[in-house]
Give the backbone structure.
Amino acid sequence: MGSPSLPEPVKLRAAALAGSRLTADGVMVVTANRFRSQPQNRDDAIERVVAMLRAALTPPKPRRATRPTLGSKRRRLDTKTQRGTTKRLRGKVDL
Protein backbone atom coordinates (compact mmCIF):
# COMPACT_ATOMS: atom_id res chain seq x y z
CA MET A 1 0.00 0.00 0.00
CA GLY A 2 2.34 2.66 -1.24
CA SER A 3 -0.27 5.23 -2.21
CA PRO A 4 0.95 8.75 -1.39
CA SER A 5 -2.61 10.05 -1.16
CA LEU A 6 -3.58 7.88 1.81
CA PRO A 7 -2.64 8.85 5.38
CA GLU A 8 -0.41 6.41 7.25
CA PRO A 9 -3.10 5.11 9.68
CA VAL A 10 -5.42 4.36 6.76
CA LYS A 11 -2.62 2.50 4.99
CA LEU A 12 -1.99 0.37 8.07
CA ARG A 13 -5.70 -0.46 8.47
CA ALA A 14 -6.01 -1.25 4.75
CA ALA A 15 -2.98 -3.52 4.93
CA ALA A 16 -4.53 -5.33 7.87
CA LEU A 17 -7.81 -5.70 6.00
CA ALA A 18 -6.03 -6.92 2.86
CA GLY A 19 -4.38 -9.73 4.81
CA SER A 20 -2.97 -12.40 2.50
CA ARG A 21 -3.91 -10.39 -0.60
CA LEU A 22 -0.99 -8.09 0.15
CA THR A 23 2.38 -9.14 -1.28
CA ALA A 24 5.75 -8.54 0.35
CA ASP A 25 6.26 -5.57 -2.00
CA GLY A 26 3.06 -3.92 -0.70
CA VAL A 27 1.02 -4.68 -3.83
CA MET A 28 -2.57 -5.80 -3.29
CA VAL A 29 -3.65 -8.66 -5.56
CA VAL A 30 -7.40 -8.94 -6.06
CA THR A 31 -8.76 -11.71 -8.27
CA ALA A 32 -12.29 -11.49 -9.58
CA ASN A 33 -13.92 -14.24 -11.62
CA ARG A 34 -17.55 -13.96 -10.62
CA PHE A 35 -18.69 -12.96 -14.10
CA ARG A 36 -17.97 -14.36 -17.55
CA SER A 37 -16.74 -11.10 -19.06
CA GLN A 38 -13.45 -9.43 -18.24
CA PRO A 39 -14.85 -5.87 -17.98
CA GLN A 40 -17.44 -6.97 -15.41
CA ASN A 41 -14.77 -8.82 -13.41
CA ARG A 42 -12.52 -5.75 -13.53
CA ASP A 43 -15.36 -3.54 -12.29
CA ASP A 44 -16.13 -6.06 -9.55
CA ALA A 45 -12.49 -6.09 -8.42
CA ILE A 46 -12.38 -2.28 -8.37
CA GLU A 47 -15.61 -2.16 -6.34
CA ARG A 48 -14.14 -4.59 -3.81
CA VAL A 49 -10.94 -2.56 -3.48
CA VAL A 50 -12.96 0.63 -3.02
CA ALA A 51 -15.17 -1.06 -0.39
CA MET A 52 -12.08 -2.26 1.48
CA LEU A 53 -10.54 1.23 1.40
CA ARG A 54 -13.81 2.73 2.65
CA ALA A 55 -13.76 0.28 5.53
CA ALA A 56 -10.15 1.28 6.26
CA LEU A 57 -11.12 4.96 6.32
CA THR A 58 -13.29 4.57 9.41
CA PRO A 59 -11.07 4.39 12.50
CA PRO A 60 -11.89 1.61 14.97
CA LYS A 61 -13.93 2.55 18.01
CA PRO A 62 -11.77 2.73 21.13
CA ARG A 63 -12.41 -0.10 23.53
CA ARG A 64 -14.06 1.03 26.73
CA ALA A 65 -12.94 -1.05 29.67
CA THR A 66 -15.83 -2.49 31.66
CA ARG A 67 -16.05 -4.53 34.82
CA PRO A 68 -18.20 -7.63 35.25
CA THR A 69 -21.35 -7.13 37.25
CA LEU A 70 -21.83 -8.70 40.65
CA GLY A 71 -24.54 -10.98 39.26
CA SER A 72 -22.30 -12.28 36.48
CA LYS A 73 -19.52 -12.96 39.01
CA ARG A 74 -21.93 -14.91 41.21
CA ARG A 75 -23.29 -16.90 38.26
CA ARG A 76 -19.76 -17.77 37.15
CA LEU A 77 -18.77 -18.93 40.63
CA ASP A 78 -22.00 -20.95 41.00
CA THR A 79 -21.38 -22.80 37.74
CA LYS A 80 -17.76 -23.41 38.77
CA THR A 81 -18.98 -24.87 42.07
CA GLN A 82 -21.51 -27.09 40.31
CA ARG A 83 -18.91 -28.28 37.83
CA GLY A 84 -16.43 -29.04 40.63
CA THR A 85 -19.10 -30.96 42.54
CA THR A 86 -19.91 -33.01 39.45
CA LYS A 87 -16.26 -33.84 38.93
CA ARG A 88 -15.72 -34.65 42.60
CA LEU A 89 -18.62 -37.12 42.53
CA ARG A 90 -17.03 -39.00 39.63
CA GLY A 91 -14.37 -40.43 41.93
CA LYS A 92 -14.14 -43.96 43.27
CA VAL A 93 -17.09 -45.24 45.24
CA ASP A 94 -16.05 -46.06 48.80
CA LEU A 95 -17.92 -49.06 50.13
Notes: The chain has a mean pLDDT of 91. Residues 8-57 form one domain. The longest helix spans residues 38-57. Helices lie at 8-18, 38-57, 70-88.
